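INFO  loader      accepted 1 record
INFO  loader      residues=87
INFO  predictor   begin
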Amino acid sequence: HDPDVAVRAAMMILERSGSMSCDSGGTSPVTAIDLNLGCPQSIARKGGYGAFLHDDSPDTTYSVLSKLRSKLPQEIGVTAKIRLPPT
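INFO  predictor   done
INFO  writer      dumping tokens
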């Protein structure tokens, strides 16, 4: 729920994977950070994450994704998985 926490977590993943160093031979082991907004489980409802974060707090979702995109290296993709409701 906190964009700054999301950025710190993503940066930790990039750093620990070697994706932030020049030692990777020009390619990054991590190519994208994906925010899962598709989990419909009841535990996700309790925690306010997954599909419920997207449905209940779209402004928070936007803030997290925007901050990730603005703070991560441009060569690292930022994506979000969503689940479409049945039609």
